[in-house]
Amino acid sequence: MRIADWSNLLIEGIDAKHIVVSFPTSSFGGRDKGMKENYESMLESITDGLELRLTKVEFAEELLFVLTPLPPSPSDGEGARG
Hints:
With 82 residues, the chain is of the alpha+beta class. It has a single domain, classed as 2-Layer Sandwich (Translation Initiation Factor IF3), CATH 3.30.110. Helix content is 29%, strand content 26%. Strand 2 and strand 3 form a beta hairpin.
């Protein structure tokens, strides 16, 4: 099983309104080593296909994502019962 598959299972298994994921954007020495682009790409790859809204918040040396599960659409059969 790929890391993305395990990550999907973990994310889908969390019963929360929001999930916050944080990544550093520079090394301990303060250097920009492309970490922001790398982590952003990785998270987008991991969450691809999941019913989530991703909100990105950037700080000076931190990249923060808020993952918000989307409510099921009425066409999914989980809407009002008749």
